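hey m, so remember when u said the tokens were messed up on ur end? i reran from scratch. heres the input so u can diff it against urs
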Amino acid sequence: MPSKEEIDFAKSEGGAWGIMEHGVVVASGDGRYPKIGIPRKKHLQKQTKCQVTPELLAARFDRAAAKGFAKAKWIEFCEVMLARRFSVELYEARKTFSKYITVSYSVAGTVRTFKVRFSNHKPIRQREVNADCDFFVGKTHFGVTTTDQAVAATIKALS
């Protein structure tokens, strides 16, 4: 907690203030009482049309592992696709946790692509019906699909 001198100085500098500890407001400057606030969200740059590399995947895994999370399924999928010499591109939705991964393969000047969506929520029904993506991983309106099924479908479509 801040000292009385720190609080008095903060009030004299404009009144509205907050003392932060580990990204959480623990004291308010309205003069009433200390209180716990909502943690501030750190701005996370989402990838848009990003070429996936082993270095990018390692950095994303390290960041998640530091917070105690296991390796994400989309990272495992990308690693398998890169190991099979496919080109992989990542797009992260701005307002959800969805990841759109476009896998492409060039054969004799012809480029084939296959788009896979990883998400923790169901897609908009009409987009799923219209085949917005070639494959949906996770909960869908027609069932639940897995990463292994996505790998098999991608390899089959691009072979």
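this time it looks ok to me. The chain has a mean pLDDT of 78. if urs says something different then somethings off w ur setup not the seq
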